[in-house]
Amino acid sequence: MEFFRRAPRSPRRLGIFPGTFNPLTVAHLALAEAALTLVDEVVFVLPRQFPHKIYSGASFGERVELLSKALEPYPQCTIATCEGGLFVEVAAACREAYGEEVRLSFLCGRDAAERIAAWDYGKPNAFEEMLIAFDLLVAARSGEYSPPAGLEARCVPLALNGPYDHVSATEVRERVAAGTEWEHLVPAPIRRRVYEIYTPGRKRQQ
After folding, report:
1. How far is CA 141 from CA 36, 47, 189, in A?
2. Is the pLDDT of residue 26 over 60?
């Protein structure tokens, strides 16, 4: 695991937030803020490879830049990368970087939790085995998450400070491209750079 910024103290419970962050939105920040009521640190993990997506839009470096600017007011937030994007791969990288004693909790929305539970890991009961190594903090997104029977204690609902179902990185990109209002969907410190990076045909500042 490679760190671009790291929180100053070693956590007892680590919130892990993997994503594409293309770009970071106010919903991402709301999820991290809610998690920080339960964990000591949130690490935003931008994998170099994703299991279900490819890099498009902003480059890897631009996404790290946007994360760095947006998270400046949050000393308990870390920015890092690892090679693999599956939760089990990210968890292994965090375990190696943070040690065996830290408790690992992944942050995600309902849609991501359902995708993780249904993913074909190549063997039966793989999801149940993963939840021995870490738990999930799951925010409602167009509905509450219903974990498989017997796993309720390992999939904890995470209440956000408002409704964010309408917020997505896809919505930001589409609104910027269309020239419609989008600024309210991203944190204020990164609005200028989001405009520069995602406006079609605009020459980017490096």
Report:
1. 19, 23, 25
2. yes
Residues 96-145: pLDDT tens digits? 999 999 999 999 988 888 888 887 778 888 888 889 999 999 998 877 88
| Cα 32 from Cα 152, distance rounded (Å) | 21
Q: CA-CA distance, 108 to 111, in Å (whole number)? A: 8
Taking residue 3's Cβ as centre, other Cβ atoms within 10 Å add up to 12
What residue type is 70 in one-letter code? A
Q: What's the chain look like in SS3?
A: CEEEECCCCCCCEEEEEECCCCCCCHHHHHHHHHHCCCCCEEEEECCCCCCCCCCCCCCHHHHHHHHHHHCCCCCCEEEEECCCCCHHHHHHHHHHHHCCCCEEEEEEEHHHHHHHHHCCCCCCCHHHHHHHHCEEEEECCCCCCCCCCCCHHHEEEECCCCCCCCCCHHHHHHHHHHCCCCHHHCCHHHHHHHHHHHCCCCCCCC
pLDDT above 80 (res 67)? yes
φ and ψ at 72, to 5 degrees? -55, -40
| CA torsion angle 132 138 141 146 (round to 10) | 50
Q: What is the pLDDT of residue 90?
A: 93
